Amino acid sequence: MLEHSFTCTAESSLGAALIRYAAIVTIASMLWWSIKRWGTLLLALPILLTACSRPWVHDPLPGASPNNDSVPAARNLVIQPSVIEDSVQASDLIITDAWERLAHEFNWPRFTNSEIAAALRSLTKHPEGFERASRRAEPSLWFIADAVARRKLPAELTLVPLVESGFSVHARSQHGAAGIWQFMPATGRRFHLKQTSWYDARRDIIASTHAALNYLAHLNERFDGNWLLALAAYNCGPTTVQRAVAKNGSHDFWVIAADLPTETKRHIPRLLAAVAIVADPSSYGITLHPIANTRLFTEIDLGGPADLEFLMQVDGWSETGFKQLNPAFERGHTDPDGPYRILAPLALQARISRAVDELPAEERIPSRIHIVQPGDTLSEIAMRYSVGINTIRRRNNIRGNLIGVGAELVIRAPLLDGRNLRDGHTPGRYHHMIQPGDSFWSVARKYSTTGKTIAELNHLMLKDTLYPGQILIIRPAGEIWRYDVVPGDSLWTIARKFKVSIDQLQRWNDLPPRRPLHPGQSLIISDPQAGNNKKT
Questions:
Q1: What is the pLDDT of residues 460-478, one digit of tens each?
Q2: Cα separations in angstroms, 231 against 103, 135, 172, 212, 271
Q3: Three-state SS across 202-248?
Q4: Spatial contact of 54 and 23, defined as CB atoms under 8 Å apart
Q5: Are residues 269 and 338 in the same domain?
Q6: DSSP letter, residue 156
Q7: CB 171 within 8 A of CB 178
Q8: Which of 301, 279, 281 is nearest to 289 (CA)?
Q9: Of 228-232, 300-304, 487-491, where does the model show the most confidence?
Q10: CB 343 within 8 A of CB 354
Q11: Is 221 an active-site residue?
């Protein structure tokens, strides 16, 4: 089985000898039978010259020492830029399968040793495992291969997630590495992968792929173009690899491998074995899951915070399908501070975009996390955030009134001046603290407005119960407020700043959906039907 994948020195020498022998026999025969046919002799001479000009010793492979006669070639895998550029040209061929595309773009020499042979036996002993990984690769394989090609990096790097995680978006190691590229928390933060209780960019297909390629390119430069050392450093850390290099006085991975962690010693041979299998799967009894050689997903801008569970209900989609493309979201809502984008199948792009445009205002209310403190009760938490107890129960799957200290509760409620009440918010002219006996009607009468206006402004319903200590945002009738747009503004940031909804801004200003704002543009930010006074 190995003979089909790797080229050995003996085969190269035997092939060269056979070529010479055939050439000599052919010429001798031609001279014997057609000595007078000089034209034939002239045709035969180039064959003889070509055969005689071939070296008897096989050509050294990239990165190999010219004085090294050992079987495992390409000791360091130092790939020249011209070789990488040639690999990208395979993308110009008409290839319908992404795995086949990779096989055409692979450029590293194929070589063997006992470690790679053992890795091949391990991967082919249970082919169903390799085949499952090939199915999990479907959403991301083309995107990764395309990103690698665009950066003129070796196509072989596309298979790093196969070895690191089996292309499992939910993979997490016992050391805390996460995502298909298995970023550790600290390394992820170093490469700007945001990690909060809402969103973990290490699982984001796009963000983690760009970060991984940045990291691999950095490591390759650090180890002078030696890809095996760069990949080893990606697995166990550059300091560990540098220490092994210094100890052995060698930059040859196979020489320093004994001083690397066991996982890393197995990681590199497994990657090279995986490359050999993808290059010629039938020779190893492997059937790769067919993956179209084209982009399978697209990005959709949400335009601000959004309830993701609402979007999962789009016809043709499902929670499983959503999480396959968007595993970075840890909860059913976007991070309050972004990013506000999702990945969606190309086939559902129009349908999901329409659902985003039609997202109800109540599904865009920012959410936050409340960590239960000793003495907290559901009623006190509900009053603090101006939401109903049943809303908190429903959002957090709580039955009854018992909540444990340290539990994280997802609270969906409007922000007040961008701060929580416990952060020092003080009621002012346009805020009202509910007192015992207050109702929407009594508060509206006090401020010369309507209960419906107050409820809408605070994302409440008239049937909701008001609690003593609850803060309501009040904007008295008879005042029209205007705001001049500045660079960086969006409908979402303006709506959040003035505690109104995007729908209200669009209605009051007659703005078409998704039309960009321009600096200096003047917007009405209060109901123009409520009065005629202008404020700026």
A1: 788 888 876 676 777 655 5
A2: 20, 24, 19, 11, 9
A3: HHCHHHHHHHHHHHHHHHHHHCCCEHHHHHHHHHHCHHHHHHHHHHH
A4: no
A5: no
A6: G
A7: yes
A8: 281
A9: 228-232
A10: no
A11: no
DSSP characters for 253-319?
HHHHGGGS-HHHHHHHHHHHHHHHHHHSGGGGT--PPP-BSS--EEEEE-SS--BHHHHTTSTT--H
Structural domain containing residue 522: 479-535
Identify the pLDDT of residue 59. Answer: 32
Confirm if 414 and 386 have CB atoms less than 8 A apart.
yes
Output phi, psi for 432, to 5 deg.
-130, 130
Candidate list 164, 319, 363, 456, residue with the active-site label: 164
Residue 76 covered by a domain: no
What CATH number corresponds to the domain at position 519? 3.10.350.10
Whole-structure pTM value: 0.62
Contact 364, 502 (CB under 8 A): yes
Residue 31 CA to residue 40 CA, distance in Å, equals: 9
- Residue 499 forms part of a structural domain: yes
Angstrom distance (rounded) from CA 350 to CA 281: 37
Number of domains in the chain: 6
* Strand 533-535 with 479-484, pairing: parallel
Task: Give the span between the Cα atoms of 197 and 329, in whole angstroms.
Answer: 9
What pLDDT, on a 0 to 100 scale, did the predictor assign at position 154? 97
pLDDT digits (tens, 9 = 90+) for 144-193: 999 999 999 999 999 999 999 999 999 999 889 999 999 999 999 999 99
Do 388 and 352 reside in the same domain of the chain?
A: no
